[in-house]
């Protein structure tokens, strides 16, 4: 009786509050658009640590303060500001209560008389209430603040009364409409809605927005991963067909188990009993075979996806510029190529497999449960929200606890590494007891965290078990009453309980796999980041002339490494390397000699000036053609596991043994190659560790000479060569008009050069200038002569 009067008072208040709220929403949106913040950000109280002086929030607080009554004189400015904040928090809730009261007043009048009686009218009333509140909050600009409160507030009562109707003995209680309910019922509905909203907010914070964004990103990654599996669509379709067949076979087994019980308790029919046993065996064997085929198809698809992803990732990595490898650790790349690609492929074979199987199983089981007893099937849904809530609460705490355990284990491992690595220092200071104490404290922290983890796990399992037993007792009670009423057989109840047992397991698996699927697919984020990464260096050109002279021109070339753009390495270099001449490039460490060699190989792009090869920019040449014509030999050459021949002909599609041996003779490597047990087919081991340093340099020089390059770069490449090998190299350089750039400090190499260039701090110094000024070059020559 009091509700119409309260609604009558609320109606004018709602009409008066709505224009003001709309105007406030427009002001907040306009202010937010100018400040670059979301419109609803001004309607909430700044959390701790936020700047309360952000644009929009201070203005909103001032507007709220202007509309409210001034605080008493005894109130401090801080208290007044806090009261203003609380008023802004309560405003959406007050608006929601006013709007709900007005809608209930409308539903109690003529509109309520048009609704059908019973549960359909109750659900229709809740739907109208939900739609009306949603529209009013959207118009008022407050939907984002209290929108999550609407479903439990409007649909909680119909859901409760519908579930109550499933309990035997409660059918006589007629459903009550909310609009005509007493105040106690209405207050209970508001309390339940607020409690559910508070639980949802508790489970959603902190970091709900970040997790939502992460889930959206993981969803995008999941679809990209499915696109990578598109070539395996026939195998996936076959796996899904076997999955359906296996699930159907497993689902029929409990049904025939209950059927056998009914046969044994009634008039025994041998034919019916034999038929039931036959079908049980048939479905058992068939489902097992289909399950095995399903697993085989998913595993085969996993291996194909794994190979495909690894190939794509490795190809993408080899196309990256050198600055990427300087900024990225080798261990990280190795982890992406091995661990993450394996997780990506397992996601399809394990996560998607289990998810689809659980989903199909839940649908099939629930279909059979509905066919046996619709009331018991709906009653079994009471367990789902409890299980999901418990799973979510436990998962949040468990993940946080696992992070603490990882940090504690890392700290314990750090104590061990530091103590063992610095054992001499530990003993020098007599700190063995201190290190033992630190390790004991770290292990004690790990033990406490392990104990907490096991305790929370036990409590979670205890809660799940209690919920399961409670549901079993409730359904047994309801099932017995249905048996007495003749609506259900004893075998049907047994089948239903077996289905409910399996369904509870598969629902939990489904909930767990949905979250785990999105979490595990996050391992693909870094892989896709590498796949999508575009090299900073421009793509190579297409120039590949049939003949090349080998004229190299540096025209005011400057360069700074990408990770250190403010530290130039080369500054305005201008010089020419001519065919038929050998140029020696000397200078102290860090002067930029190796950088010049890297630019000449087009490993980096000059940040200024031009680098020309036969009058054309070096970046315009085709990649493979350029590196056949311009080759380099480093001071510490890199060899790959394989035979001697494979290392000399590395990178060449077709190369005869005669050409390989000719290059080996030119590098004076044929002598020790013939002494090897298998000659050219001898394995050099990982990184060439089966060979001596001088032998590895000879093979590296032969690998460069087999290409017959027009430009040869020797970066301290003769430091480990004997006299015969170096003389053979000098003989090769004297034949043909080849351009040779030598980076060396040996006097013999410098003396045999046609041109000597000296670098100092990235700048080129002239020969005459250096000799006359007694500068770096003169000191270098003097040092070489003394040596």
TrEMBL record:
Residues 237-499 form the ABC transmembrane type-1 domain. InterPro entries: AAA+_ATPase, ABC1_TM_dom, ABC1_TM_sf, ABC_Tap-like, ABC_transporter-like_ATP-bd, ABC_transporter-like_CS, P-loop_NTPase, Tap2/ABCB3. Its EC number is 7.4.2.14. The keyword Protein transport applies. It comes from the Eukaryota. CDD domains: ABC_6TM_TAP2 (cd18590). This is Antigen peptide transporter 2.
